[in-house]
Amino acid sequence: MTGNQNEELFMPSASVRSDRILYTPSSFAKANLLYLQEAGILTAAAPHVNRREKLYSCLCFLVLEGRGKLMYEGQTYFLEQGDVVFIDCRKPYSHSTGEQEKELWILRWCHFYGASLPFIYEKYRERGGRPVIRPESAKVYDELLKDLYVTASSDDYIRDMRINEKLSMLLTCLMGESWHPGEHREGYARKRDIRQVKNYLDENYHQKITLESAAELFYINKHYLARLFKEQYGITFTAYLQQVRITYAKRMLRFTDKKIEEIGRECGVGELAYFGRVFKKIEGISPGEYRKIW
Q1: What is the model's pTM?
Q2: Is the pLDDT of residue 48 over 70?
Q3: What is the pLDDT of residues 110-147, one digit of tens each?
Q4: Count of other CB atoms within 10 angstroms of residue 49
Q5: CA-to-CA dists, residue 141 to 90, 172, 258, angstroms
Q6: Strands (E), the chain
Q7: 180 in Cβ contact with 190 (< 8 Å)
Q8: Is residue 9 a contact partner of residue 16, using CB atoms and an 8 Å limit?
Q9: Per-residue pLDDT tens over the stretch 88-118
Q10: 80 Cβ partners below 8 Å, 6+ apart?
Q11: What is d(CA 290, CA 275) in angstroms, rounded to the nearest whole number?
C-alpha cells in the first residue's frame, strides 16, 4: 500500500514544499529484501532544521540546488549542490538548509531499510565510506532516486522486487564512490601502494604464504602490512588469501576428477582435515558436498 501526498516532508508547510510517497512493503519484502519506506523531493521555502534519531532506516538524499549542513556523529558537514548524504538514522542527526534565499535547497531523497542494511552500512563505513560524498555523477543518483519514487507509485505487481533492485544499485554506487584507499584516516603520510602484494597472492596462492613471509618479501613491517591490506581492500590479508585458494578449489571440484585431498594441497591449504574446515567456513558446506551439489 502506498500514499502519494503533496505535503510537508520534515517541517510545517510554511518551511517546505514537498512531494513524497509513503510506501508499505509486503511482509515478504520486509523479511527478505531491501525495502523502501519513503521517497520524494523537497523544496525549502524558508530556513529550517530537521532533527531525528532512533529511526530504523537509512537516509540517502541528493542536493539538487542550494546549500545546507548536516550534523551527524558529532561532526558538521557543509552541503552544496551535487552532494549526496548517506546515513544510518538509528543515530541522532539533523540537517538544515542555508539561511539566505538563494541558498534554500531542493533535495531528492529516500528512506529505506532491510534486515541486511545495518551490516551493509557497517561495511560501507569500514571501507572508508563517509556520511557525505561528492560523486563523479550526481545524475546517476538523481535518476535512481527518481526511479524509486516512480516505481513505488506504480501498480507493478513485482514492484517490491524492482525496488530491491534499485536500492541495490544505489548501494553499489555509494560503496563505489566512497572507497578512499589513498587516504590515511589517522593523519599519517600517504599510504604505501600494496598492489604488488595482492598480485603476489593472486599468482602464488598455492605456495606456503604467511603474513610474516609476505612482509619480509616486500620489506614491510607485518603489522603495517596487515593494516594497509585491510584498509585498501576491505578484507584481511589472511581472509583474502583463503578466498583466492577456495575459488581455485571450487574450480577443481567442479571441473576435474582430482581427489579432494589433492585439490587441498594444490590450492595451498594443506592436509585434508584443515582444507575441509577452511572450505566449510567459507562456503558453508564441505568440499565433498560442494562437488556433489554442483
Answers
A1: 0.69
A2: yes
A3: 999 999 999 899 888 888 889 999 998 899 999 999 99
A4: 14
A5: 23, 11, 48
A6: 2-5, 16-23, 35-44, 49-52, 58-65, 68-72, 75-79, 84-88, 93-97, 106-113, 132-133
A7: no
A8: yes
A9: 999 999 999 988 888 899 999 999 999 999 9
A10: 63, 67
A11: 13
